[in-house]
Structures are given as structure tokens and as C-alpha cells.
Amino acid sequence: xxxxxxxxxxxxxxxxxxxxxxxxxxxxxxxxxxxxxxxxxxxxxxxxxxxxxxxxxxxxxxxxxxxxxxxxxxxxxxxxxxxxxxxxxxxxxxxxxxxxxxxxxxxxxxxxxxxxxxxxxxxxxxxxxxxxxxxxxxxxxxxxxxxxxxxxxxxxxxxxxxxxxxxxxxxxxxxxxxxxxxxxxxxxxxxxxxxxxxxxxxxxxxxxxxxxxxxxxxxxxxxxxxxxxxxxxxxxxxxxxxxxxxxxxxxxxxxxxxxxxxxxxxxxxxxxxxxxxxxxxxxxxxxxxxxxxxxxxxxxxxxxxxxxxxxxxxxxxxxxxxxxxxxxxxxxxxxxxxxxxxxxxxxxxxxxxxxxxxxxxxxxxxxxxxxxxxxxxxxxxxxxxxxxxxxxxx
Length: 394
Ligand SMILES: Cc1ncc(COP(=O)(O)O)c(C=O)c1O
Hints:
CATH superfamily of the largest domain: Type I PLP-dependent aspartate aminotransferase-like (Major domain)
Number of strands: 12
Order of helices and strands: HHHEHEHEHEHEHEEHHHEHEHEEHEH
Radius of gyration: 22 Å
Largest sheet: 7 strands, mixed
Bound molecules: pyridoxal-5'-phosphate
Helix content: 25-40%
Strand content: 5-15%
Shape: globular
């Protein structure tokens, strides 16, 4: 009998029912290498007659259990774990791109993903193109004969745009490109990219998957053949996680479904509260009918996520005063964990960009990104209300 519920898969997916010494939880195999007992064993391994682990950079049982859990949750044949989301992204890009190829970015993306694409890839002879804002037909118009990879974050960070994945999958199929989707913001609970036609799903497992703001990890999920190709690149690039990090990830994923469903509901309430406040100019949340991609979000997502971005009717200083007045969310970059986090995007994630670049990217000085944690939504709303009053008092 196979169980398909996402809560069940979060808890049990990928884990062996019987484990060594009859323990319940997957052990941490904290080892760098795996000795052979005799040379005959090594030779049998060399000749392909024996399958086993040899060295920590090529695999680890704790890491493997996390990979199998992720594959089960995301509905892929296999998965790979990485030391960080960026390791997952860079290793996957480098697997599919060579000199003379074209990589097409759709809509917004995490700034370091963009930096990798604009700083390093051109030095390797890869051409990089951007569709700055997804709209129907724009991606089809931007592909070229040499487009090998189409990349999109869904939803995007920080404006939570929702590019239509079925459309992107159609374009990718048509031009023979690999469609890579960074689904970090959605998690497997809210979005099923492989079912919608993506070839590879990427996660910064640092966010919702880990869920406790205490680990860095990344993941790629796909069919077995594609994962084998990406693994060959990971084997020499070396961005694999520590076994202890893999254990923490397994533990975090067990509560993924309940956490994300709570965060979906709490963020929706908070977005509606903020939209009703006179101090707030605009709220970006795909669960609000006012969001430009709400009509796609309702079809594509099964939950709208735990991040709410909004602009205050204020300058940068008043916005900073609002952040200073908040008592519950920590002022920190990241999202998806149990503690609510808040940032003034222009002065944190986008602080290295010039004001002109920020304006082009739509990053207003008063843009606030709130990652809703697991606190009671009533407490978060009360905190947001008192901080708005405090910031706008003078
Ligand atoms: C959407 C998205 N993808 C990838 C990353 C990179 O992940 P990591 O910080 O785990 O390397 C981030 C980090 O914030 C992100 O927001």
C-alpha cells in the first residue's frame, strides 16, 4: 500500500521502517570515509559487483535518507542534497550549461542566483537573458536557438509573482530546454512543479524544509537520470551537507505540512489586516485578489505561503522606525522558519544594488518583507498594529 498524503510523506517518506539497532529515528552517520575490510572487496566494488559507500563527498546514509524523503515529498524519482540552496542552484546550472549556451531567467530571483548568472557564467561563455516580468507570451518571445535552461522562482522573492508554470513547461518542451524551478518560497506543500511540467525542482532547504532557522541546506529533485547527471557534478564541486545538518533537515521536514498550512492561514490573515491599514500603501500576497497574479495563484498553488511583502506609505526612515518598533519578528534575512523574521529589503537583501537598480527591480525604500512564523497570528497582528502606530506617531 502506498500513502500519498503530504503530512504522511513528511513524517515517513523515504525513511526505512526498520533501522539499525531498531532505533526509531534515522541515525547521524558522522563519518568522512568508509573502510574496506579486504582488497578483494575493493576490487569487487571497482568491477561493479558490489554497491557500497566509499567516501563522504560521494554520499552518506543520513544524507541519503533526507534525499529519499525529499524525492517522496516532491513526487520525483530521486533527489540530491547540497550544502546550501546556492550549492544546489550553481551545481545544477553547471550540469546543464556549456560555452555558447543561453540561460533564460524568468521574473525576479534571489540576488545571489542573479549574481552567479551575471558574474560567473559569462566568464564561462554562457549567455544570460532576462524576462524581467513574467507575462503570457514573453518567455516564448525571449527564447533563442541556443536556450538550454529556463529558470524561474515560483513564487518570486520579494513581490511573490507567480509565473504560469504550465506555460513555461510548454515553452521549454518546444525549444528542448531544461525547466528549472526554484520552489523554495512555496515548499512541496503549496506547489507541485514536477506535476506541472518542470524538469528539476530546487529548494533552499534552509527555509521551509528545515523550518527552524538552524541549518543551511539545498536540494534538487527530478527523474533518476537527471539526478545522476547532477550528482556527477556535485561529486567534484563538493557542495554536500554535513550528516548532522542532514539529520536536522529530516527532523525539520517531519513537521513541514503542519507548519506550512499554519503559515498559509496566518499570512493570509496578516495580509488582509495590512491591506486594511491606512499606513500601508500596498500589500504583495498572492492570496489577495489585489495581487496581479492571484488568478494564476488560485489555479497553481494549494496555499499562498508564509511570506507577506508590503510597502508603507512612508520614507526609508519611518520604515526603519516601524521595524525597530516590532517586538516579535526578528530583524533578519531568511524566511520559512518557526520564528517570524522581518527585513527592510532595500537596506538588507538589496543593499548592494544602486538606487537606480533597486528602482528597476521594483524595490521601494519602504518595502518590508515579513516571514510569518508559528506565533499566534493575533499576537503578530497586535505587534504590527502597535509598530505602525509607533512609527507614524510623529
Ligand atoms: C528563493 C531562494 N533560492 C535560493 C536561496 C539560496 O539558499 P541558501 O541561502 O540556502 O544558499 C535563497 C536564499 O535566500 C532564496 O531565497
